[in-house]
Design brief:
12 helices; 16% strand; Isopropylmalate Dehydrogenase; 11-stranded mixed beta sheet; 353 residues; 11 strands; alpha/beta
Length: 353
């Protein structure tokens, strides 16, 4: 098994990627291919990898920056690290691709190179989030800023397949994120989506508010990529605020420090549960290949987590299982609604494509 890591993806590239590649190769016992500018990577990798673990460089002369316009830049820079890395997956050289780069660019290149799964119009980003009951499959977290009801139905089907095959949840409960749990609440998109989800063959439980999400009352929650991205980032910001305030208060007095020592295991569990770096990346589900997209601010720890997630997904043959599950459910959905194809867009670019 070989995993490709985009060496030019994160905000601080290539240092986090180089360190993560070496650590992950040692941890997983697998080969990691760093795709990026060879002249920038070679000497640094040699210094970080004295044990000569199976980490190698595949040259890609072009870099897609976060501020680049997705379509224009991808066409002007055809040998960008994302495209070159995904070609390695497409050609069977590698099993999965991981990047901390521009979400829109990753989605554009994934659709162009790996293509959509049969019956899927809008690939989406899946992020498992912690809840009182374990984990919830939350999507879309950034691939599709603008959606239609049909896309939500696809998300629900893909999310259900993921929950069943990855989290082991049988007949997962699917909720539609809204500003009220009562039927009829929400904007027009939510109201138009609900009847379609009811007839899609999934275990649809209706609208859910954020409090129901974190209470663990749904196994899958669907929303548009704009709302989902704001939801996830807000949750991460609140989690960081809580841990920062706790850290400050613990160090404020001797009594607080003693209390912390007694409760240290509980604090460690909470910190690990709330730390997005423990997951590392979101799976772009709906394309014919494993593509994992992390935060631009990812450090080496987050990237190691992303590589571990990619390793677990490929080992479990997740893609084949999800494709089979999706086809069964999409057949039922297609009989309920005729889906018309439109071009997707990414949330990290203002340009539609």
């Amino acid at each position: 098994m070989t995993i490709v890591l985009d060496a030019m993806g994160s905000d601080q590239y290539p240092e986090p990627e180089l360190q993560a590649a070496v650590e992950a190769s040692d941890l997983l016992g697998e080969e990691i291919i760093l795709v990026g500018k060879q002249e920038l990577l070679t000497d640094k990798l040699r210094m970080l990898n004295p044990r000569q673990l199976p980490v190698r460089i595949h040259h890609a002369p072009d870099v897609l920056e976060m501020e680049d316009k997705v379509v224009e830049s991808s066409r002007k820079k055809p040998q960008n690290s994302m495209a070159v890395g995904m070609e390695l997956v497409k050609n069977g050289v590698a099993s999965a691709f991981v990047t901390a780069g521009n979400t829109g660019a990753a989605m554009f290149n994934a659709i162009r190179i790996l293509r959509r799964m049969q019956g899927i119009l809008r690939p989406a980003l899946i992020t498992p989030i912690p809840t009182r009951a374990g984990r919830c499959v939350f999507m879309d977290t950034g691939a599709n800023a603008d959606c239609r009801p049909e896309f939500f139905a696809e998300f629900a089907i893909m999310g259900s397949a993921y929950a069943e095959k990855v989290l082991g949840v049988m007949n997962p409960r699917v909720g539609l994120l809204s500003n009220g749990e009562e039927e009829g609440k929400g904007n027009q998109l939510v109201k138009d989506t609900s009847p379609l989800l009811k007839s899609s063959g999934i275990h649809y439980i209706g609208n859910v508010e954020p409090k129901e999400v974190y209470a663990g009352q749904a196994d899958v929650v669907v929303t548009d990529g704009f709302t989902g991205n704001v939801f996830i980032k807000t949750s991460e910001a609140v989690a960081k605020l809580i841990t920062d305030v706790l850290r400050e208060q613990i160090s404020s007095s001797t009594t607080a420090k003693l209390g912390y020592l007694l409760a240290k295991p509980a604090f460690a569990t909470l910190r690990k549960m709330m730390d997005p770096a423990e997951v590392g990346a979101a799976l772009l589900i709906g394309v014919n290949g494993y593509v994992f997209i992390g935060h631009g601010r990812s450090d080496s720890h987050a990237l190691v987590s992303a590589l571990r997630l990619a390793h677990q997904a490929t080992q479990s043959n997740l893609l084949k299982a999800i494709q089979s599950n999706i086809q069964e459910r999409m057949t039922l959905l297609d009989s309920q609604s005729h889906l018309s194809e439109i071009t997707p867009s990414g949330n990290k670019s203002n340009e539609n494509y």
